[in-house]
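Input structure tokens:
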């Protein structure tokens, strides 16, 4: 290595801890690219990549996963067990933060196996803590209590104060969840003593805040606020922003428990403003929930409703992720069972092969013995009569027939096994297809349909209890109506898509009057468009007819009109036009809305994943509509495409045949 490169690398290694403190992802990306291009695949590079993974575990899951996987790949390449262990643990923590529990479980179990083999009790304790956190999120009391206790037992066998404090804190969480606050406070105080000796600001702030919160639950408010104020002073001194938000939220809960609502409101608002500036959604959810409770206690229902909407939005995001994880766990169970079936089938094949080999050995032995007997008899009885030689030949022929019979039986068994294998493969393929439909349906039902009904569930009681003016009630009811209409469209698309996927039915084509059919859907969206001051014009030529499935054509027009209304701002204009070609009729739905970029245009018709964005008034969708439009258009012998300019509008075109293309 030249002197210049040596100096540059030395400076980089010295400066890395400061580079890792940068808040912008672009700076961290540059560190990652420098590691890829300039640093050897050694333990230093693995350590730095793992530090980048840990740095981003709460803020940028994609970056954290990229760094962690890069470190894991390099660690396995040079068999660096310590680096592999860190990578697995950090990637598992990132997966928990993303609520991807099956993936987190895979990482932690592999880490536990390595740590146990190395007798590394520190990493064993951390891994048990991580497993406890996973099952704590799953609300599995039996398992998280078991793993947290195992973590504490392992930590007490080490000299590592960090892992001991961490394990004590988690055991305290178990007792808090069980409302045994005296026991929880005992473990929090023991953990706090260790953190005060270590003087690591972030962990000390957390220990103070958690101990103060536990003091609150046993009504020892003086001790609680001593902890809170000390934690806030350290957070201000070390500029740890989100730690301040945690302390303000904890103080707000304590003041609310003391019925000092003005002080509670002041602290909760401070935590909320910090979370908004940092764009920290988890902290926003916590602060919004506290503000909702405070305003509800004060009977300020209009303000409570505002914060309930924020809280419900973030809560529903987490709940939807939880539903998706349950589906993924079912898929993981299915994959495990599939692998188990494949293993059993492989064992059966191996048994057959071994049996065939045994049969061959017996056959060879029998043939050898027969041949030996024949030689002996021929040598001894060469002078015997032709009748005796014929007898021996008949005996040999009989043995050969037995051998052929055994070969035939083996071949028959082999053929039967191949037929069973082919049948199992077909059943597996059909099961996978059905499972994919089920997974996508559960994902859409759990996320896109649950969210508006959850918001309604929170808003309707406030309408009943709160004091609103007629204008406010009308505005809220208008929003409720739009959510119901949008949900109905989502459900119709979902049912049509599921029917097409599961029944694989062919279009029932008839002759359709295009202008009349378009007008029926224009009438449907006229009132919805009027609320956004949008005009819809039906400029389809009279007398035009196509040969297609009536229901599928209505769904295509409804989805294209619905998208046009969704992405056209107030005061906009939508036109439905037509053009007659030789064998087809081309229909266009044009708007002067927000348009789309080239990347979005390429994604909207893809079948392997649904793609959706919010409309100009916050309208939601499932992404199934345009996928169904493409599928139904092509099933009826036509095609669909889009032209769009961002900021100027979008035109969707689709064509359908004028007559039956393949009458025979």
């Amino acid at each position: 290595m030249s002197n210049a490169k040596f100096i540059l690398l030395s400076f980089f290694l010295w400066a890395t801890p400061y580079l890792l403190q940068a808040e912008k992802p672009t700076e961290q990306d540059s560190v990652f690219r420098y590691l890829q291009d300039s640093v050897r695949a050694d333990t230093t590079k693995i350590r730095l990549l793992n530090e980048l993974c840990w740095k981003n575990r709460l803020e940028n899951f994609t970056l954290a996963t990229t760094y962690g996987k890069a470190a894991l790949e390099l660690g396995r390449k040079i068999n660096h067990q310590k680096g592999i262990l860190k990578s697995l643990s950090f990637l598992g923590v990132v997966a928990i933060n993303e609520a991807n529990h099956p993936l987190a479980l895979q990482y932690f179990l592999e880490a536990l196996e390595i740590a146990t083999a190395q007798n590394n009790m520190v990493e064993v304790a951390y891994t048990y803590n991580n497993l406890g956190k996973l099952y704590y999120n799953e609300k599995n009391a039996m398992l998280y209590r078991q793993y947290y206790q195992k973590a504490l037992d392992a930590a007490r066998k080490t000299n590592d104060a960090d892992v001991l404090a961490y394990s004590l804190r988690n055991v305290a969480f178990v007792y808090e969840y069980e409302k045994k606050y005296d026991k929880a406070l005992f473990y929090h105080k023991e953990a706090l003593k260790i953190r005060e000796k270590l003087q690591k600001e972030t962990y000390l702030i957390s220990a103070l805040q958690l101990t103060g919160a536990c003091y609150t639950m046993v009504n020892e408010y003086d001790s609680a606020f001593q902890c809170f104020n000390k934690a806030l002073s350290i957070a201000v001194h070390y500029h740890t922003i989100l730690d301040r938000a945690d302390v303000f939220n904890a103080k707000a809960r304590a003041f609310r428990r003391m019925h000092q609502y003005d002080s509670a409101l002041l602290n909760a608002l401070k935590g909320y403003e910090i979370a908004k500036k940092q764009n920290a959604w988890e902290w926003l959810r916590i602060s919004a929930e506290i503000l909702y409770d405070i305003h509800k206690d004060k009977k300020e229902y209009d303000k409570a409703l505002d914060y309930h909407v924020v809280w419900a939005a973030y809560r529903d995001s987490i709940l939807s992720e939880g539903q998706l994880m349950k589906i993924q766990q079912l898929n993981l169970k299915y994959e495990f069972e599939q692998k188990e079936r494949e293993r059993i089938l492989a064992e059966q094949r191996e048994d057959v092969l071994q049996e065939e080999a045994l049969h061959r050995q017996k056959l060879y032995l029998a043939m050898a013995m027969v041949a030996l007997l024949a030689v002996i008899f021929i040598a001894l009885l060469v002078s015997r009569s032709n009748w005796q030689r014929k007898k021996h030949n008949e005996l040999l022929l009989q043995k050969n027939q037995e051998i052929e019979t055994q070969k035939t039986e083996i071949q028959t068994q082999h053929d039967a096994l191949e037929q069973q294998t082919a049948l199992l493969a077909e059943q597996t393929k059909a099961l996978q297809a059905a499972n994919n439909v089920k997974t996508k349906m559960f994902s859409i039902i759990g996320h896109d349909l649950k969210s508006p009904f959850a918001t309604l569930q929170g808003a309707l009681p406030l309408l009943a209890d709160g004091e609103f003016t007629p204008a406010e009630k009308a505005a809220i009811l208008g929003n409720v109506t739009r959510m119901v209409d949008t949900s109905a469209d989502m459900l119709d698309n979902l049912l049509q898509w599921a029917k097409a996927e599961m029944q694989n039915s062919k279009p029932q084509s008839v002759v359709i009057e295009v202008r009349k059919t378009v007008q029926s859907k224009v009438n449907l969206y006229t009132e919805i468009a009027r609320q956004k001051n949008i005009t819809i014009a039906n400029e389809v030529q009279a007398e035009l007819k196509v040969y297609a499935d009536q229901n599928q054509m209505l769904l295509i027009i409804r989805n294209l009109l619905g998208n046009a209304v969704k992405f056209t701002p107030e005061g906009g204009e939508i036109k439905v036009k037509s053009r007659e070609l030789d064998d087809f009729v081309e229909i266009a739905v044009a708007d002067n809305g927000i348009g789309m970029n080239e990347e979005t245009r390429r994604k909207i018709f893809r079948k392997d994943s649904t793609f959706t964005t919010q409309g100009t008034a916050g309208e939601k969708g499932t992404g199934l509509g345009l996928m169904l439009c493409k599928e139904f258009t092509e099933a009826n012998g036509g095609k669909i495409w889009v032209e769009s300019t961002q900021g100027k509008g979008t035109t969707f075109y689709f064509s359908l045949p004028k007559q039956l293309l393949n009458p025979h």
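The CA atoms of residues 31 and 37 lie 10 Å apart. Strands lie at 509-513, 535-538, 545-549, 573-580, 584-591, 639-645, 649-657.
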